[in-house]
Amino acid sequence: MPRSQPEFTDLDQHLFNEGTHCHLYEKMGAHVRTGPQGTTETTFRVWAPNAERVALVGSFNDWDRSAHPLSPLGATGIWETTVPRVGPGAVYKYDIASRHQGYRVQKADPYGFLHEVAPRTASVVWDLAYEWSDADWMQARKTRQGHGAPISIYEVHLGSWARISEEDNRSLGYRELADRLISHVVRLGFTHIELMPVNEHPFFGSWGYLVTGYFAPTSRYGTPQDFMYLVDRCHQAGIGVIIDWVPAHFPSDEHGLGYFDGTHLYEHADPRQGRHPDWGSLIFNYGRNEVRAFLASSALFWLGRCHIDGIRIDGVASMLYLDYSRKAGEWIPNQYGGNENLEAIALLRHINGVVYGEFPDVQTYAEESTAWPMVSRPNYVGGLGFGFKWDMGWMHDALGYFAHDSIHRKYHHHALTFRGLYAFNENFVLPLSHDEVAHGKGSLFGKMAGDEWQKFANLRLLYAYMYALSGKKLLFMGAEFGQRAEWNHDASLEWPLLDEAPHQGMMRAVTQLSRIYREQSALSELDTDPAGFEWIDANDSEASVLTFLRRGRGDACVLVALNFTPVVRQAYQVGVDRLGTWREILNTDAREFGGSGVGNFGAVDAVPVPWHGRPVSLRLTLPPLGALFLEAPPRLETALHEGPDDPDAPDPAAVDHRP
Question: Which of these, 161, 205, 210, 206, lies nearest to 181 by C-alpha position?
Fold first, then answer.
């Protein structure tokens, strides 16, 4: 059937200028129509309200700016034209002559679906038709990524996950990644992949965080359909896909959004509001209606047309604060004299509102590093409306703690327990992300204290600590096998390390953690509910040991014991609330992981000795720099009593937990 051109109706015009149009990708940019005889024509629309003239230039008219002028569409500031015999593959730009100062420039299409491979900068006419095969995933994904679901995220930079050295060190394409990356993620047991920004970006070294194509997967790895194929294959394998999305700023490249029609159209004119002090990039004018519609439409494009399961919004803190990374006099207060960016707050609430309104089975994630309240609480109670927030504080505290030699850790015990004060203020993701293995910070393996054996043990312990706590999990690529070098976006991961036994053991440990996390509902079901976490002993700083329970609904319960020193703790008494056999389902010191093999022979029976204010207890052997997960028995037997501890039992305070 021939397809009609998407008309930009009076209602579209009204919603666009009002800032509430959330599907502009269906109307703006380049849209191809195929006629009944197979002829093609393409309609082009671009927003340039301060242009004197706009012309279409491209491969089809020898870049002649007099060949295809655009006409203004009412008072919207939109220009449009329809060009016959132009279809997919045609390369184009908009030649814009401004009303101001004789400014003239050629711009890529802000709404383009495909752009030339960098360093070329023109847009490419493209059709997004794709036949999806992920119906089963799409129907079931609400149960796969809700607050009570196990969500373990493998963060990936597509350009450096694996490269082909025989072909000039080239990156894999989307379809090649579908064959290799998915099998790796399935084998490891992660539930989701998070892609660092796949939006088109001119500078590879920005990792995708300086975006020029808010509606286009980068052409470095293939076409939009190739990208859709990767997502489709992930879904068929039962893996969700999250993308990083960057509304905080954009680059000043001439072909991009900056100074688009000879005015500061997308960005603030005043550099105190419109230029990012850290990166020299431009900041969106969140108060401009058409910019708000542009950004909301971009978010919905990825969720709707590309079947993405979640968006992680980068740099939220830099959006929320007018004085972010600025000194006195370098920023403009809001209308009430404060440093809160009221327009950015309104934008984030708007985007989260429309995202969850149209796609209630997806999630949004905030990279927000401050104590801003209620980031992951609904709009209607005054929150920002995100589904989850990255717990950057935990990440910094944990990595700082693991950098200390074990003999000094008892003086830093608070770094492990401080999170208990705020763990349920938000719905958290615990991230060990790319930012911690770049910018001269070294690898996660390199951050661990101790000799070679201890570094591996500490890293396994760190991962177990992350998987044990309340909150969803995120691990950057390479960390699963203990990459030794800092991440380099121009090189492949250190895959040859997997020929070495310690790195094989590390990957087996991560695989086991992922499996247990998926199978044990107690480790995820009440992730955002204080009822899902219960300290047994948070205060044994002298031994540098933590013990706590993770609970799910019903009987589901897992005991976690973490020993942060290389000293074996024999007969370590831990109070619990039920008799029976507690099954050891994880021991990070197992020999298969590269450990020393110290443990509890697979199970421990509770004894009728009250401890930690609980009616019964376990006597555990805690392995060196090791984590134990023990699955609780069903509540078939009633604990001996629920009252005060047995007066004839030994005083817990008088018992030395040390060997």
Answer: 161
Under 8 Å between Cβ of 86 and 100 = no
Beta bridge partners of 631: 558, 583
Instruction: Give me the pLDDT at residue 231, please.
Output: 98
- What tens digit of pLDDT does each residue of 19-35 get? 999 999 999 999 999 87
- For the chain, residues classed under CATH 2.60.40.10 are 10-124
d(CA 474, CA 391): 11
Residue 19 CA to residue 143 CA, distance in Å, equals 33
Catalogue the active-site residues: 314, 367
Give the CATH H-level superfamily of domain 10-124: Immunoglobulins (2.60.40.10)
- Yes or no: say if 175 and 340 are a contact pair by the CB < 8 Å rule: no
**Is cis: bond before 530, omega within 30 of 0?**
no
CATH number of 154-521: 3.20.20.80
Q: Which of 248, 312, 252 is nearest to 280 (CA)?
A: 252
CB-CB contact of 633 with 582 (8 Å): yes
Give kind and range of the element (H or E) at residue 180: helix 174-188
Angle (CA) 224-225-231 rounded to 5° is: 95
> How far is Cα 604 from Cα 573, in angstroms, rounded to an integer?
11
Cβ–Cβ < 8 Å for 569, 547: no
Mapped onto helix, strand or coil, the DSSP state of residue 419 is: helix
H or E element in which residue 551 lies: strand 545-551
Q: Which helix (H) or strand (E) holds 353?
A: helix 342-358
Neighbours of 346 (CB within 10 A): 14
Looking up tokens 């300290």 gives: 535
Q: How far is CA 105 from CA 59, 253, 258, in A?
A: 17, 12, 11
Euclidean distance between CA atoms 478 and 500, whole angstroms: 14
CATH 3.20.20.80 residue spans of the chain: 154-521
Query: Is 649's pLDDT higher than 70?
Result: no
Structural contact between residues 212 and 256, judged by C-beta atoms closer than 8 angstroms: yes
Q: Decide: 104 and 95 in contact? Cβ < 8 Å.
A: yes
CA dihedral 167, 168, 169, 170 (to 10 degrees): -70
Closest CA relative to residue 177, chosen from 207, 156, 203: 156
CA torsion 321-325-329-333 (nearest 10°) is 0
Give me the chain's average pLDDT, please. Answer: 94
- The pLDDT tens digits of the residues spanning 151-167 come to 999 999 999 999 998 89
Q: Evaluate if residue 653 carries a pLDDT over 50.
A: no
- Are β-strands 310-313 and 363-366 bridged in parallel, bridged antiparallel, or unpaired? parallel
Structure tokens at 448: 């661990």
The CATH superfamily of 530-654 is Golgi alpha-mannosidase II (2.60.40.1180)
Tell me what pLDDT residue 5 has.
67
In the chain, which segments carry CATH 2.60.40.1180? Answer: 530-654
